[in-house]
Amino acid sequence: MVINISSAAGDIPTPMMQIYSATKAFVKVFSACLNSECAGTGIEVQCIVPFIVATNMTISALNLGKPSLMYPGPDEYVTHALRTVGVRSMTHGYWLHSLQAFIIGCFPAWFVEKHGFSLLSLINSLKRTSL
Ligand SMILES: NC(=O)c1ccc[n+]([C@@H]2O[C@H](COP(=O)([O-])OP(=O)(O)OC[C@H]3O[C@@H](n4cnc5c(N)ncnc54)[C@H](OP(=O)(O)O)[C@@H]3O)[C@@H](O)[C@H]2O)c1
Questions:
Q1: pLDDT of residue 62
Q2: Cβ distance 44 to 86 under 8 Å?
Q3: What confidence tier does 33 reach under pLDDT thresholds 50, 70, 90?
Q4: Do residues 101 and 51 make contact, with C-beta atoms less than 8 angstroms apart?
Q5: Full domain range(s) for residue 29
Q6: What is the CA(55)–ligand 1 centre distance, in A?
Q7: Is there a contact between 45 and 5 (Cβ–Cβ < 8 Å)?
Q8: What is the SS3 assignment for 48?
Q9: How many domains does one find in the chain?
């Protein structure tokens, strides 16, 4: 089993993080291609596409504070994500991240390209006031 880690930043244009977003988009397509190539070999390639997880990378950069329902800590996130191994080849790995992706996916591609990051920030600010 190969598990590659992409990011929702690979789906949603992220200002000032062009290289990060582009490489994460690469990881998604690369993983999907490899998984197709490996069909029938017993090797599976899964791609995990998280939104925000409260790790060393994000806690200080985004001023997240403690892990929360929307921003699970690494242990919580991995516990959820591992349940998808062998079940989903591409997954957000955590139910609230799937919900965020669903909401963003309700908008047309041109809108997400133009306003996706603002929309994500809005969803996250709603979380700060309601969860
Ligand atoms: N956190 C998020 O919100 C989020 C969202 C989407 C995707 N992701 C992706 O998830 C993955 C893990 O990120 P994270 O949030 O868990 O970050 P993290 O807590 O900062 O952990 C990064 C890990 O990568 C290791 N590392 C860094 N540079 C390395 C190098 N040159 N060679 C070998 N190991 C190296 C670090 O090792 P040391 O501890 O030894 O420094 C650390 O274990 C990344 O690919 C990130 O893009 C994270």
A1: 74
A2: yes
A3: very high
A4: yes
A5: 2-130
A6: 8
A7: no
A8: strand
A9: 1
pLDDT for residue 131 is more than 50:
no
The first and second tokens of residue 105, run together, are 């996916």
- 13-27 tens-digit pLDDT: 888 889 999 999 999
Q: Is 7 in the pocket of ligand 1 (CB under 6 A)?
A: yes
CB 101 near ligand 1, within 6 Å? no
CATH assignment of the domain containing 66: 3.40.50.720
By the 8 A CB rule, do 91 and 49 touch? yes
d(CA 75, CA 80): 9
> Given ligand 1 and candidates 19, 20, 30, 55, which is best to mutate, with the most ligand atoms within 8 Å of its CB?
55
pLDDT in tens, 61-114: 777 778 989 899 999 999 999 999 999 999 999 999 999 999 999 999 898 888
pLDDT of residue 126: 59
User: Residue 40: left if φ>0, alpha if ψ -120 to 50, beta else—which one?
Assistant: left
